[in-house]
Amino acid sequence: MNYDFIVLQTDFGLNDHFVSVVKGVIYTINPEVRIIDLTHQIQPQNIMQAGFLLKHSHVYFPARSIFVSIVDPGVGTGREIILLQKGNQIFLAPDNGLLTLVADDPHTRAYQLTIPNKYLKHPVSQTFHARDIFAPMAAYLSKGISIKTVTRPIPEMKKLEFPDVKLARNEMTGSVIYVDHFGNLITNITKDLFFEFIKLKGTFYIQVHNHKITALSRNYSIREKAGALFNSFDLLEIFSPGQEAAQVLKASGGEEVRVLTK
Q1: Could you please report the per-residue DSSP string of 40-73?
Q2: Reported pTM
Q3: Residue 99 belongs to what domain range?
Q4: pLDDT by residue (tens digit) across 55-97?
Q5: Last residue of a domain, which of 130, 153, 176?
Q6: Do 139 and 228 have their domain in common?
Q7: Under 8 Å CB-to-CB from 256, ≥6 apart: which residues?
């Protein structure tokens, strides 16, 4: 099967040459493929953030897409590279737990890349596997090489322990997983879980540090210091109108967000 799209996600930023060089390698091998940038602004080495965004983003891309997610503190070590197949989509990432959430689906199949020499860019740098391994492998896969020829079974891929939402009688505790470009605090509390929790509880409030939010908003236009809404991923998001909630509330990734009922 040929693949039409290669979707890139990295922590490389946009100030350096890294992203462009990766694209150059891909286009040299397959000038017909289309490259989409998911993001290159993952916090450096923040594997959990990358896995979270990939989980909630990949469903909006077409079939026959290859996702190349490179947040790779172990580059140049003995860590393996994972190929995950989910329907007509492929995911390439280091075996460091980045694909934990995507793999949490009975319809996925995980493999270990064998990385045949003929598909690599030589000499292979020990510090730039994105250029010399990930990019050429994605490009050749997009041209239709068989997955079976470049993989072997993997007994178990590494998993990350993503924070769970904790439920008590009158309290639900979630975590900020991601702080976006606007300083909004994206949590792991889903819309369904939230309303299931409060439906028989009466009134509620949301607490971040000592700040309380007593109602949900439909959009970002409110007069209060901070508000809460369900974003386009149906995840609870804390925001501050015209400002960065992360700064206003002095909160960051990993922060507890509590939903309490009376």
Answers
A1: S-PPTT-HHHHHHHHHHHGGGSPSSEEEEEE--T
A2: 0.91
A3: 5-153
A4: 999 999 999 999 999 999 999 998 999 999 999 999 999 999 9
A5: 153
A6: no
A7: 173, 174, 175, 176, 208
